[in-house]
């Protein structure tokens, strides 16, 4: 299992390819940001699908249970996932 | 009078519900962050009058932007709360619902977008939800009005929840999960063709060409249709009917003299001149109605289509990388596009940006480089007659300034420029009636502002000429205007009026008999040197005195530098 760290905490969201699905393992930011993520529907245990990435280190567009969210690459990197 | 506060996540239909209940038309659009300030209105429920407050959307009561702070403050004010919930995303909406219920105010919950739950295969047991939350839950469809009456009457008799008590964040999420398991069943469904097309607009390979086409189409539509309205409607009305009539009427009681000149200026029946006569009933009405209004109508119609479709947040994704280089992020495209209509709502819309640094940069760049539609319409009108080239030079210069200043401000302004985090709403079919209503309300707003101020401006100019002040001012400023910028000294009148309004200021350039080169330089300076008074005060309010002084200083420096550079390029040093 190349995609999962030895401690089982998953890999960054940024490793997903367009069309791939994964489960969110951890939100990995400070508690304020985590809180904001959850209220937007980005929560541990949810299934995300990568819709698109923008060139030149642009944002990611993901789908979480029918909500599409655009998220900057730096923020996305700290969200950990387990690929499905 | 008791106050009812609306609350809810962004883009759930609060503003549509507000408009339905109060009859006050507030702007609703299909993107999060449409409402950035509160609006109050009154509504009568069961014979009793209530004050209803529309607020910006917020994901939770912990604000992350200025708009969200407004929402939290206004919620405190309400005696009764209507919590509007997106029924198609019940789970993440319920968090705010619980937070709201914990405040122990009389509350009702509107399960809005109920119509959408059916084709998304979502079943919600509203009765059970009502029991669990301990307050009335009413399924609604704000755009058709379904359920709104019931919502209002339930709000009248609302009481605080007895089942929801104050809890920790963690407990709240557990509770949300518990409730969702009890009341909601989601049937599996496949990606529809529509969704695939929707995705194409955010994938760079397809999205960027689509965006270019959309913007090009929007631009052509605004110009072509706007010009057609002028040619086939406005000009015939003014030249064939209104003009001869008003000249006749004024001549009948003031055939010459001061009053005659102020009312219709130099116009006569034989030589009707709406553009340069400087009468408040000729130029004063022709500028707003005959030159600007047609473009206001076409601009806001197109903007409303994009807003209601839900295209703007997609555009935000595509331009995000570019805007980061200027210290902003993708969301700043929304205030910028709104600013192309009018800088005032544009400046207010910067409230959706998270930090002061972003808001300062977005507002300053807008004040300098984004001409409002009234100004653009006049630029089209006076430069268009010399060829598209000149219009192109003006807008390219503004774009270059936007980019250079952004690059600079990103580096010198203290503070943070966080990354984009934006919910992308589903595409919706724009409703024709709503589109026309929105366009009409914008056109009306424009006229209500423009007509009095344009007339006031022309009146002031008349006074300046009558009392010979123009000559004095021209002399004082001629070193700057003539020597440095290559403009006729009379351009000072335009610069002074530009503080009031930009459209009439540009109109003031016409009687000066300038070359296209001079007109181009003057248009660039008028766009950049200072915002109109309305924008100035909004920015002052939003930024505070210190920041506004900095912004103003920057505007003046940038404007005159750009003016001098363009003088050297276009006219040369002679
Ligand atoms: N299908 C459907 N669309 C709706 C309904 N209610 C609102 N809309 C649409 O949803 C979009 C958002 O509506 P708004 O009233 O602007 O939402 P808001 O909650 O005020 O949004 P913010 O001010 O951004 O927080 C608009 O395009 C509306 O036309 C509904 O019940 N059904
Ligand atoms: Mg709103």
List its salient traits.
A: 84 residues; alpha+beta; six-stranded antiparallel sheet; 35% strand; B: 574 residues; alpha/beta; six-stranded mixed sheet; two-stranded antiparallel ribbon
Write structural notes for this entry:
By secondary structure, chain A is of the alpha+beta class. Chain A has one domain: Roll (SH3 type barrels), CATH 2.30.30. Chain A contains two helices and six strands, in the order ββαβββαβ. A six-stranded antiparallel β-sheet of chain A has the order 1-6-2-3-4-5. In chain A, strand 4 and strand 5 form a beta hairpin. Chain B has 574 residues and is an alpha/beta fold. Chain B folds into two domains: 2-186, Rossmann fold; 204-571, no CATH class. Helices cover 63% and strands 8% of the residues of chain B. Chain B contains 24 helices and nine strands. Chain B has helices at residues 14-22, 66-77, 90-101, 114-119, 126-133, 148-156, 169-183, 193-200, 204-253, 258-264, 283-309, 312-324, 333-341, 343-349, 356-369, 373-384, 388-412, 432-466, 469-484, 491-500, 502-507, 516-528, 533-543, 545-570; strands at 2-8, 39-45, 48-54, 80-86, 107-112, 122-124, 137-139, 184-186, 421-424. Chain B has a six-stranded mixed β-sheet with strand order 2-3-1-4-5-7, sandwiched between helices. The longest helix of chain B has 50 residues, at 204-253. The complex binds guanosine-5'-triphosphate and magnesium ion. Residues 8, 10-16, 28-30, 32-35, 56-57, 112-113, 115-116, 141-143, 308, 428 of chain B line the site of guanosine-5'-triphosphate.
